[in-house]
Amino acid sequence: MKERELRRQCRRLLRELDIRPPLDVRLLCERLAAHRGRPIHLMDYPLPVPGEFGVWLASDAADYILYQRETTKPHQDHIILHEVGHIVAGHTSDEDDDELLQRIYPDIDPEVVRRALLRRTHYDAAQEREAETVATIILEWASVLNYVTPAGTGLGAALNGRRGWL
User: Of 104, 115, 128, 129, which residue is most buried, by most CB within 10 angstroms?
Assistant: First the structure.
């Protein structure tokens, strides 16, 4: 998908989800889940370093986003938004990887996890760029809206309100 269309799609989705500053990534995920009609479970996990910072796993009934527990909250939010980017861009969930599954679920046979959670394909570089672009778009717009949103309440705030996810 071209970046311009991806930006349009993100802005449209964020308007539909009624996301307002300050950005709350978990609220965005709740609203995206409701919008899509399937839950998104966010799970902090001590993913091995070096390695993946986040993983999106899709089952028939729900989406699971695992993100690195051992990092800062802003980095966790970025990781989550990157994985959300795969969802928004219409990708399929992460690569089928027995080693990764064994690290995440060391006490469960990877085949059992795969059957329960996954129908996965490998992301190519273009899909990774799209997911990162979605995360960046959301963070950029949140930053701009945080800056331009009028402080306070009342008539002054109402008359000088932000334009939203343009």
Answer: 104
Around Cβ 102, how many Cβ atoms within 10 Å?
14
At 89-127, the pLDDT tens digits run 888 775 455 665 666 666 666 665 555 444 334 567 888
Asked if 64 and 43 count as a contact pair (C-beta separation under 8 A), the reply is yes
CA 66, CA 43: separation in Å to the nearest integer?
Answer: 5
HSE-CB for 134 with a 13 A CA cutoff: 27
Q: Where are the alpha helices (DSSP H) in the chain?
A: 3-16, 25-36, 73-88, 98-104, 110-117, 125-148, 155-159
Would you say 51 and 70 are in contact if contact means Cβ atoms under 8 Å apart?
no
The whole-angstrom separation of Cα 143 and Cα 161 is 16
Q: In sequence order, which residues have a C-beta less than 8 Å from that of residue 113 and are 6 or more positions away?
A: 101, 104, 105
Contact status, residue 67 vs residue 80, Cβ threshold 8 Å: yes
